[in-house]
Amino acid sequence: MTDSEQSKLIISGAVAANSPSDEAQDEADSSVELELRRVMVPAGSHGARLDRALAGIVPEFSRSYLQQLIEAAVVQLNGRAVTKPSAKVKAGDELIIELRPTPQSQAFKPEAMALDIVFEDPYLLVIDKPAGLVVHPAPGNWSGTLLNGLLARDPQASFLPRAGIVHRLDKDTSGLMVVARQRQAMDQLVSMIAARSVSREYIALAHGAWQGARTREVSAAIGRDPRNRLRMAAVDLEKNAGKPALTVISLLQNGERHCLVKCKLHTGRTHQIRVHMALLGHPLISDGLYGGAVAAGLERQALHACRLAFEHPVTGAPMEFRSPPPPDLRAAIADVGLIYNQSS
Length: 344
Prior knowledge:
With 344 residues, the chain is of the alpha+beta class.
């Protein structure tokens, strides 16, 4: 491609007259330096998808980043904004790309927030996460996550992968998490979790009276639900992709239509407890994704990480932390006529 076929224009604090509409600029910081890249589609990209053609023309940017630009309406094809990465291009088409920060590219930034710190030393933090807080930036939640809060609280977190996060809780699951503050501690915690030497226990409020043995071991592989890609499911590994999963579930208190149980993870698969409880016929209260009806005034799945125990990754000292259920879950337990006893 010759210099005449590709040109650059740097714009600081303004948008060129032929740039996309003001609406497409709403999330851009006016002080951010923007670059307009004008290119011609080469013969080798004739008939290709727009995102694939761009990935070949400006290979210094990832295809994911370029797709975000297209969806933000800041890529023009022959003078018109295009918002579908799958749009086809022809040789000789003119593309104007506004290279600018996207929500994803700005996700790893500090954002001050109040965090409930249960324990802190130079090597790690133990946090009691509230329901509603997303742990890690992802589509739909590029800001306001625990990761953003960790970056604001601790400058050294920026030198660690995922700001030191070594395991996650679902957005609407509350409770205890351990976070590394130093690379040695992080590597060791990751190894300990993989070796299943970190004990993680949860309490869950579920539909249906518990029947049978007070303690049940659920060993059922978990993978993406082949019928609904938005959820997980117990799968047959001979037919579907997935990973082995093991949960030990013990009855704490039984009622006529509900049960309160303790769940101990022996693996850490996505939505593991929610899937295994639904498999037993006891979906969690208010867990609509897995068949749990809204009940007892609870607006999120009735799941709380109540106990976390491990050996300190650096000193080797035994560590154990407990967290009682937060007010919304305590109220729901009482509403269905059950009682939570922390000693159990």
